[in-house]
Amino acid sequence: MIGKKLAQAAQKEAVLERPFPQVAQASVQSGKTQIRARVEVADADRFSKMAQKISVSTDRANRASVEEKAQNFAEKTTYLSENLGYVETDIGGAAIVRSTPQTMAGRGAPYFEAKISETEVTLERFQSKTEGGRENIPFCVTDDILARVTDDAASVLTPKK
Questions:
Q1: What digits encode the pLDDT tens for the residues 70-112?
Q2: Structure letter (DSSP) for residue 154
């Protein structure tokens, strides 16, 4: 579905040897719903990419709450290096899912964070800064993992047929 198209678009960007960061995009029509996916790539080789951010959005939302979508996304993405779990819903109404402490390397370790709104899922990785705050860091994804994450995000957003 959309995941394979996004992985192919990212491969094409790498073959064209455009300067980093590279942005690959794909879109598909699923019934009445338009699904768009985007990956920002900080670096790449033949077998994997260092993704800065993966985003999937739709023009129509399913009826599930953002909390249900977040839980569903966390349950689907068991192939990531860390398990994800629902944390909270932010003031803007988006659900936040993060790496669970049990699966992280320790305090201050890098962690995944997904933000799930009615019509969009974004996945990023962050590292705590020693002086406080955090910074976005690239994370390694193979074409297969990129496709799976993209397809799983699209499946939690799109209305069921």
A1: 999 999 999 999 999 999 999 999 999 999 876 666 667 899 9
A2: H
Query: CA–CA separation, 43 vs 138, rounded Å?
Result: 9
* Cis before 110? omega within 30: no
Q: Which domain holds residue 141?
A: 2-157
Tell me, what DSSP letter sits at residue 72? H
* 161 pLDDT higher than 70: no
- The encoded tokens of residue 89 equal 């819903």
> Largest Cα–Cα distance of the chain, in whole Å?
49
Whole-prediction pTM: 0.92
Residue 131 neighbours by CB distance under 10 Å: 5
**Total count of residues recorded for the chain:** 161
Q: Are 53 and 124 in contact (CB under 8 A)?
A: yes
**Assigned token pair, 46:** 């033949």
Beta bridge partners of 134: 128
Please tell me the total count of domains within the chain. Answer: 1
